[in-house]
Amino acid sequence: MRATSRAFKENVRHALADDNLQAAMAMLREGFPGRRANAVARLPEFEALRNEGAAIKDHVLENLDFYLERFEHNAVAAGGHVHWCRTSDEACAAVLAICRALGAKTATKGKSMIGEEIAINDYLEANGVTPIETDLGEYIVQIRHEPPSHIIAPAIHLLKEQVADSFRATHTHLDPARPLDEARQMCDEARQILRQKFLAADVGITGANFLVAETGSSIIVTNEGNGDLTQTLPKAHIVLASLEKLVPTLEDATTLLRLLARSSTGQEFSTYTTISTGPRRPEDDDGPAEYHVVLVDNGRSDLLGGEFREMLRCIRCAACINHCPVYGAVGGHSYGWVYPGPMGAVLTPTLIGIAEAGHLPNASTFCGRCESVCPVKIPLPKLMRHWREREFAQKLNPAPARWALAAWAFLALRPALYRRAAASAARLLGALGRRRGRFRTLPLAGGWTDVRDLPAPEGRSFMSLWAEREKRR
Amino acid sequence: MLDQPIRVGLFVTCLVDLFRPSVGFAAVKLLEAAGCTVSVPLAQTCCGQPAYNSGDKSAAKAVARQVIAAFQERDYVVTPSGSCGGMIKLHYPELFADEPEMRRQAQLLADKTYELVSFLADVREVERVAARYDGVATYHDSCSGLRELGIKEAPRRLLASVAGLTLKEMARPEMCCGFGGAFCVKYPEISDKMVTDKTADIATTGADTLLAGDLGCLLNMAGKLARRGLPIRARHVAEVLADMTESAPPIGAPAAEA
């Protein structure tokens, strides 16, 4: 997808003026955090589990080469194929080659963020394979020709009335007078349409929540069961997964699964948790004839040795997104690329560059809510700050901001001069603002006073008053 | 040991110094009442967050060195801000991760640094204050104090002892107000949305007073309350706890209202 992260501020203005989006975001802000809090409250060992989850991921990252090879060995032993891809281009080509070998015309898809990252849909479409999203939210954004706005709830930016309109505009073969007022009715309609697609698809593509090294298995969780139909019915199941999805054992996977659903939707467990190991065996009732895992690096191994390494612990639960006041205000599309919210503010610059995505790690108050809910304790504010450090070092932030900072530092490091400057500023602003107690406008302070008043200083600096008090003693 | 005065160095914070010295004097009064001898090192300006959060690590380090040197001699460093307290307590040691000697000194300072209200309640074990405030207040949990320093109960516990004061919780007291230092002027539209929601939550409580422990958040919220014409008085929690609300008008209010 074409990044619009550079236009973040413009995206934000549109988002804040979009009443439908604001209504949808108000529901998100109310919904997810409360459900997560309830789920966490019901599990006394949740804190301990977070530490365990982080430790599992750290251990994998420490020994990634070992577990990758072990995974490949066991996946192949189970009859699967593993495709190693350095870049998104290589990953797209690998998927297409599998489709071509089977003469595939259509591919059903489970929701996959790595699929969004490598833009597999556009690539397949351009090469004669029609991708069909089968997750309801993902299907909705596909028929609207929009990118997902959230990593687990792709259509969270829409109200159900907008979805009904899109269904009527797309499913033109159905009775125009049919009722589409309830989510249930839209769900039934999508199911009816997708059922035929599932049966006709030649290839099924899913992501993976985890890859298990000890068994060579992939694991996906869904609430709609679409993942199972996607991977079971066609001739081939293709798993798209980035390197950091690895865990050593099934037990490690279950530890992380206990964190995942609680953190994301507030469920104890997702409705469907499906473990796939190799293709259909002779004794199996169903399953794909081929099982492929497309392992995508796309920049992950560059992160391993550096200051963003902790980001590779991410299990894509979206808790940081659901709790982010900035995301809650502006929605996912404002971020301008695949990954929104705090996790996107850290990850996106690694993938499309800090010059393009510079706004993302800056558009944070560092309120810390993201870090406080992260199931694998990723220090998201710290990682966003690392991006700001890189920007500053590369002089990518605006020149006036750098000048202001330099002037501030000059004063801050000269306490005597600073005291005089602060005392004068307090006197001047205090005298000017005394009558009203606040400023409605102030030169050079438009960023502040455009949206709120600036309370006026009392008129004397603390340090000057304190010096007087000390003298009197 | 019991008779030894406890030497507290007050880290005033740049915002209190410039905007609201009353908060500094309220802190001094509270600390003295809690048996501390308060001094104010001259070589303090700011904790360094403007540089640190803008990616200028070397300026942040230079300011941190200055603070570390200025407060070396004190038993405790106390500051009427969770944000500056968090900076010193958590981020100073991080800043010097690669310089063992400075890191050691930063950690020494971090270990004895406290946000004012949590210092009173948790270290000095103050259970009640001699203060009166007639009104209904709602308390906003500033992000750094809450999530970096774990301050939640201390201000509520002490406020509960203020005569005449009723505390009424807002719907989402832990939600960021949208200040975020430079964030509020770099992204004013987003900040506006956040502080609009925050002031709506505040107004819904019916409280006549807004209290918080960080002046940055208070300037933001008071400024928005004023812009929206909501007649709610904003004050730093220390002013109420120190019984010093007579000595200055509410934040953003004209002098006559004092």
> Quick one: CATH superfamily of the domain at 43-301 in chain A?
NagB/RpiA/CoA transferase-like
The CATH class of the largest domain in chain B, by name, is Alpha Beta
Query: Into which percentage range does the β-strand content of chain B fall?
Result: 5-15%
Low-confidence stretches of chain A: none
Please tell me how large the radius of gyration of chain B is: 18 Å
Number of helices of chain B: 13
Number of DSSP strand runs of chain B: 8
CATH fold assignment of the largest domain in chain B = Rossmann fold
Strand count, sense and barrel status of the largest sheet of chain A are: 6 strands, parallel
Beta-strand share of residues of chain A: 5-15%
Query: What is the CATH level 1 assignment of the domain at 43-301 in chain A?
Result: Alpha Beta
Distance between the termini of chain B: 42 Å
Radius of gyration of chain A: 26 Å
Mean of residue pLDDT values of chain A = 96
| CA(first)-CA(last) distance of chain A | 69 Å
CATH architecture of the domain at 43-301 in chain A: 3-Layer(aba) Sandwich
Average pLDDT metric of chain B: 96
Kindly state the percentage of residues in helix of chain B. 40-55%
Order of strands, main sheet of chain A, comes to 1-10-7-4-2-3
Summarize the structure.
Chain A is α/β, with parallel strands linked by helices and 473 residues long. In chain A, 53% of the residues lie in helices and 11% in strands. Among the domains of chain A are: 43-301, 3-Layer(aba) Sandwich (Rossmann fold), CATH 3.40.50; 402-472, no CATH class.
